[in-house]
Design goal:
The complex is a heterodimer of chains A (570) and B (685). Chain A is mainly alpha-helical. In chain A, 63% of the residues lie in helices and 2% in strands. The relative contact order of chain B is 0.11. The radius of gyration of chain B is 34 Å and the shape is elongated. Classes of the chains: A mainly alpha (570), B alpha+beta (685).
């Protein structure tokens, strides 16, 4: 890695270090619902929404009601999104005249956007109308992100409230997050992106004549706002097939930096919010530290792997950086970003469940691609998706507390809440869901010849392509390694199933856990209590994430990226 | 804790683990425990048994069309997998064995005796097995008390060594807090009438046998929660290994069932799964060895969680009686003269306070200790509140300051202001002032005070470091209580405490989410003992107290409450540490087995063989053998418990993470390598 790559990495960390405490505190205020200055601006808009939807904003919900609200809201969203795609041919705002989408793909895409996965088995510029993208997808990009945050906050409330039956109100939480956090941040960020050259137009395709005499069709669209919420809400579903590699989505080195920053912003701020709501910044800091260590380590790994070049390019080709050459493995990467910045972007996007790409992951070196895969295999907790990353990491904190709590000779407690059999049951379910979905569906797909036919490559790289798809969808990341034709009946259904399981079979136990923890008294801390706001605990949490979650995938990593790497370098 | 070892059933003496008969029994038991019906209670080991059976079937099935060396390898692997289960059973059997031996000797005590029962105004002989609650039995010298009960008439000395191991007889009398008697103990002198309070089969001795034997052992709450986590981890690896075969098939390198099972068994938390029940049994056993009977494992766990200890001042924090602390001479009087007069006037005082004055003077002053000649000793009486000595020419007195002042004034003497000032000062500091006079003159003041047992201050400091608050409970006035509390170093005190006050205190602590432990012996204590999360009843206490508490201390030593807390913590620490060890082991096992599985087909993967194990077969087998041996190696630790240190949670965590976390990650790399060297030297390849 060259000095400028280190500087770029440091600048990104610096920008986050400044913003995270500010946004973290602001999010806590919004979610705690305490009276604040913004009420005069946002209050009327929120009240309008509550009245329109018939929501009693003061009524708190028990965990079952909260969970039912999440499920009902998501089910309705899937239905609406499905119908929008099927009927887009007859709906307005369709200057490119695309027809309705097939049932299997519509289902897959609807599930994908509602679960905050944004796996795309289609190319946006040719398959979806502006209306579908702007009204359907963008709305989901906002609310699915808000729903994730709502679930995380319900879990925080379960942890910090003493003897409570209720966890807040899902509708109010979603409304407040959208109105007070996502919308204002999006408006400001959209202006930044437009000013930096990201397009924003309702015009259709432009046909232009190039100097060489041929013609090109240049797509249009309201790209800038979609691009912002795509990153900010860790969605990742781009309006164009090339995603953030497309110059209309991500034209310059600055926009690349800014988008990379946006997709990390909320996931890293939420643990800070957690600390504020728990009444102890240290509690938030230790969770944040564990997330940051894993993100930084694997991002560094990916950057190091990509800047060192690809073995596939034979001798005689200079791959190291010089004054005139960017250097590194540039296959599938935009020269305007270079190898290191591309790797950092893709690594951040896989670590945050955004899944956006500014370079082709399939063309990464074996270890670089393996690092992206490993980011997701940690269960999207480093720092993970908006909300889902925090509740995922808090689940692992409960596992860590359980083991470490016994080690200090007390019934394990986290924030003064005892972790007992009922909680461990829910934790165990949570931890089992994703490996079950990812590994068994991959195994199934590999055994089924027609599914295996979707693979571009064979051998170790083919295995990576297949496991990547299911790890990505079951962790609700949506990052595509490419090299797999996902728009088949089998993959539309199987990947959709993975996304549904990964989202809702984890949210329900998380909310049940919140309910169970909420009902308990919050015990006072003493010298005998396991301290959880310490560097040691952050280290333990990191270790638990790597050993209990990450190591499960060691055999498949050995047969995929590691085998590919060792064969290449044998 | 009792140090007597001559008693017939001394619980504090565990049977030797090297005892041949003991080992034979443990081995026999562990074979019996291979039955799935037994293993079903242990999800981890049950899974091992099921998958091992699967491996066995495939080994036999595939034997015909596989090479000799592969067959040998598969056979050895299956064999070691079976040994893994056996080792887990050995751990449990050894832990149980100690209790079983104790139960056997207790059972010998529970011989049937005949009881003389008063029925319809007549005395009839009834077998002890036919006694019913409410029966009145007469018991005389040399008789075995036929059942648990309360003394309703008479007073007797009783030999309770059968239960407590303590050979010194104790006094049991009707009424009061010393009325409870236990079936199986022997009356030494006098006649008593006992009202039976427990039906045969439900007596203390029966419960004790069931407890030490572990027959009624139920999983404790934390054990259940840990079981769930372990089952969850096991299921994750079921998923990981079952799906590994399709990946292997895709890679054109399908694996044998034996190897897949070997990897699976190595990865699931077998170490803690195998030792979990032994740890629980051994924890209970450690209490029994300290002569404490816990009525449930739940209580032992709760002891580890306790955050508030209610300690009775008298007997726990201080010695039972006040002791002479210092002598203060009045102006113009030599201290030696005060000491001499105090000594002479206390010779006739047989109360503990009086004896403590004699001790103090003899220890601190160099005097002529010969008693005066031709004297009349005036013994201490509650009426005069003085003791003394009348010699021909002088009268020495020592007693309550007011009584001595009165005595001096009656003889025309004056009480100097200085005397009053010293008396007030001592009382202020929670002490008891006694005055010493010679004739009509006051010589000085003796300062009596509660003496805190040595080492208590340090123990309270340790408890504080562990996050446990100590509250001293006393009937003293607040001033006295505050002085002793400050000296002993307790965190808080409850003065002029009534049973109701105690109850309120417990409820208040519990409302704040704190678990409370206390000791008690009187009937008055019963409600509080029942309310406390850990209630330790003294064996000398009443039946009501013993029923209400969830533990009984056979030595009736209230200080032991602190040991009980430590044992509870140690139990949890041992479980947590071995769980961490077990999980951390997985890293090395992955690196041993996964490259070995695929290296034949993909030689490049030998880069992952970081331990440089000699061959794939040897690598897999070494991991399996390590996995089995580590169980045996940890049995002593499981039985003894991880050494407990009275440190704060942060320090304990740092230490145990280093030893069991980092150690757990590193040790198997070394262990597997060493076993690999041995295995390959023996010709497995």
């Amino acid at each position: 890695m060259a000095a400028r790559d280190w500087l770029y990495f440091a600048l990104l960390i610096g920008a986050l270090a400044v913003s995270v405490p500010l946004l973290g505190v602001y999010l806590a205020r919004v979610l705690e619902g305490t009276p604040q200055r913004g009420d005069r601006v946002w209050g009327p808009l929120e009240r309008l929404i509550y009245r329109a939807l018939g929501i009693d904003s003061r009524a708190e919900q028990r965990w079952r009601t909260y969970a039912s609200s999440v499920l009902a809201f998501s089910a309705a969203s899937v239905l609406v999104l499905y119908l929008l795609q099927r009927l887009q041919g007859v709906l307005p705002l369709n200057p490119t005249h695309v027809g309705g989408v097939t049932p299997a793909l519509s289902w897959n895409t609807a599930v994908s956007f509602v679960t905050n996965t944004n796996w795309q088995n289609y190319a946006g510029e040719t398959a979806m109308s502006y209306f579908t993208q702007m009204v359907g997808f963008v709305t989901q990009n906002f609310v699915s992100a808000a729903a994730g945050i709502a679930v995380a906050v319900a879990l925080i409330r379960g942890l910090v409230r003493s003897r409570t039956a209720t966890l807040g109100n899902f509708w109010v939480d979603v409304t407040r997050v959208v109105v007070r956090v996502l919308l204002p941040l999006s408006v400001v960020s959209t202006l930044v992106l437009v000013a930096s050259g990201v397009i924003d137009t309702l015009a259709g395709t432009h046909v232009v004549h190039t100097v060489s005499g041929s013609t090109q069709s240049l797509p249009g669209g309201a790209i800038a706002p979609q691009e912002v919420i795509k990153e900010l809400g860790t969605n990742g579903g781009g309006p164009f097939n090339a995603n953030s590699a497309h110059p209309f989505e991500n034209p310059t080195g600055f926009t690349n930096f800014f988008e990379n920053y946006l997709l990390l912003l909320i996931p890293f701020s939420l643990p800070w919010t957690f600390g504020v709501m728990a009444g102890s910044r240290r509690q938030g800091a230790s969770v944040l530290a564990a997330m940051a260590v894993l993100w930084a380590a694997l991002s560094f790994g990916a950057m190091a792997a990509e800047t060192s070049g690809s073995h596939l390019l034979g001798p005689g080709i200079t791959q190291h950086a010089t004054a005139t050459v960017v250097g590194g493995n540039l296959t599938g990467k935009e020269v305007r970003f270079g190898a290191a910045q591309s790797a950092l972007f893709n690594s951040s996007a896989t670590a945050t469940s955004t899944g956006a790409v500014d370079s082709a992951s399939d063309s990464y070196t074996a270890l670089g691609g393996g690092a992206l895969l490993t980011n997701m295999m940690f269960g999207e907790v480093s720092p993970g998706g908006v909300g889902s990353g925090l509740y995922g990491m808090l689940i692992l904190a409960l596992v860590s507390v359980f083991i470490a709590g016994l080690m200090v000779g007390r019934t394990p407690e986290y924030l003064g809440k005892k972790i007992q059999a009922a909680e461990m049951k829910l934790v165990a379910i949570y931890i089992l869901v994703v490996p079950l979905a990812a590994l068994s569906l991959t195994a199934f797909a590999l055994l089924w010849p027609s599914a295996r036919a979707s693979l571009l490559n064979h051998g170790a790289h083919g295995l990576t392509e297949m496991i990547y798809a299911f790890v990505s969808t079951s962790n609700n990341n949506g990052s595509a390694f490419a090299g797999l034709n996902g728009n088949t009946g089998f993959f539309n259904i199987a990947l959709g199933l993975a996304m549904l399981l990964g989202r809702f079979a984890t949210i329900v136990p998380v909310l049940a856990l919140a309910g169970s923890l909420g009902a308990k008294p919050r015990l006072e801390e003493s010298a005998g209590t396991l301290p959880t706001g310490t560097p040691l605990f952050a280290l333990l949490l990191t270790g638990v994430t790597v050993i209990i979650v990450g190591l499960t995938y060691f055999p498949v990593l050995a047969l995929g990226p590691l085998l590919e790497h060792f064969v290449a370098h044998a | 804790m009792s140090l007597t070892t001559e008693a017939p059933t001394d619980l504090s003496r565990p049977p030797s683990s090297l005892d041949a008969a003991f080992l034979r029994r443990a081995l026999r038991d562990s074979l019996a425990k291979m039955s799935p019906r037994h293993l079903v209670h242990n999800p981890v080991m049950m899974t091992v048994e099921v998958t091992t059976a699967l491996a066995l079937v495939f080994w036999v099935k595939d034997a015909a069309h596989q090479s000799g060396s592969t067959n040998v390898f598969a056979g050895l692997t299956v064999g070691w997998l079976l040994i893994t289960i056996l080792f887990a059973n050995v751990a449990e059997a050894v832990a149980e064995g100690r209790g079983k031996a104790q139960a056997d000797s207790l059972r010998r005590t529970r011989t049937q005796t005949s009881a003389r029962v008063r029925r319809d105004g007549q005395l009839i002989d009834v077998s002890s097995a036919d006694l019913r609650v409410g029966d009145l039995c007469e018991v005389g010298p040399g008789d075995i008390i036929p059942g648990d009960g309360d003394v309703v008439e008479g007073i007797a000395t009783v030999d309770e060594s059968a239960i407590t191991g303590e050979s010194a007889p104790v006094i049991r009398e009707s009424g009061g807090d010393r009325s409870a008697v236990t079936g199986g103990t022997r009356v030494l002198s006098d006649h008593i009438v006992v009202r039976i309070t427990a039906n045969p089969g439900e007596t203390f001795l029966d419960r004790m046998i069931a407890l030490v034997e572990g027959a009624s052992r139920q999983k404790t709450p934390n054990e259940i929660a840990l079981d769930i986590l372990l089952a969850g981890l096991t299921l994750i690896f079921v998923i990981a290994i079952v799906t590994l075969q399709p990946f292997a098939v895709y890679s054109h390198d399908p694996q044998s069932v034996v190897v897949l099972v070997a990897l699976f068994v190595c990865l699931i938390p077998t170490t803690i799964g195998a030792l979990l029940s032994a740890i629980g049994i051994a924890g209970m056993d450690r209490l029994v060895q300290r002569n404490v009977l816990a009525m449930s494992g739940r209580a032992v766990e709760a002891a580890g969680d306790v955050s508030t200890l209610l300690l009775d001042k008298t007997g726990t924090i201080t010695y039972g009686n006040r002791r002479a602390h210092e002598l203060v001479a009045l102006p113009g009087v030599r201290e030696e003269d005060v000491a001499w007069a105090a000594l002479q006037s206390s010779l006739a005082d047989e109360t503990p306070e009086g004896r403590s004055i004699v001790t103090l003077v003899r220890e601190r002053y160099v005097l002529d200790f010969t008693p005066l000649a031709d004297t009349v000793l005036v013994p201490f009486s509650a009426h005069t509140r003085m003791s003394g000595v009348d010699a021909p020419e002088r009268q020495l007195r020592k007693g309550a300051s007011s009584a001595v002042e009165q005595w001096v004034r009656e003889r025309g003497g004056e009480v100097p202001d200085e005397a009053n000032r010293i008396v007030d000062q001592i009382a202020e500091r929670g002490g008891t002032p006694l005055a010493v006079s010679d004739g009509s003159r006051i010589l000085g003041i003796i300062h009596l005070k509660d003496v805190v047992k040595p080492g208590m201050t340090e123990r309270f400091a340790q408890l504080r470091a562990m996050g446990i608050r100590t509250v001293m409970v006393t009937g003293d006035n607040p001033k006295t209580a505050a002085a002793i509390a400050a000296e002993a170093g307790v965190d808080d005190f409850l003065a002029e405490a009534t049973p109701e006050d105690k109850m309120r205190l417990i409820k208040r602590e519990q409302a704040g989410g704190r678990l409370v432990a206390m000791t008690g012996d009187g009937t008055n204590d019963a409600p509080a003992l029942a309310q406390a999360d850990v209630g330790v009843a003294m064996n000398t206490g009443t039946q009501a107290a013993k029923e209400a508490g969830n533990m009984v201390d056979l030595d009736s030593d209230p200080t032991k409450l602190i040991d009980i807390v430590e044992i509870g913590k140690q139990l949890l620490i041992t479980r947590g540490s071995l769980t961490t060890f077990s999980i951390a082991n997985d890293i090395a096992k992955f690196f041993a087995i996964v490259p070995a599985m695929f290296v034949a087909k993909f030689p490049a993967l030998s880069a992952l063989n970081v331990m440089r194990l000699s061959s794939p077969h040897s690598a897999v087998l070494s991991a399996v053998i390590f996995n089995a041996l580590v169980i045996v190696a940890l049995i002593p630790l499981a039985l003894r418990g991880v050494r407990f240190r009275a440190l704060g949670a942060a320090a304990v965590l740092r230490r145990n993470l280093l030893v069991f976390g980092l150690g757990g990650a590193v040790v198997p790399f070394l262990g597997i390598k060493v076993i690999d060297l041995a295995v390959s030297a023996l010709g497995v390849h």
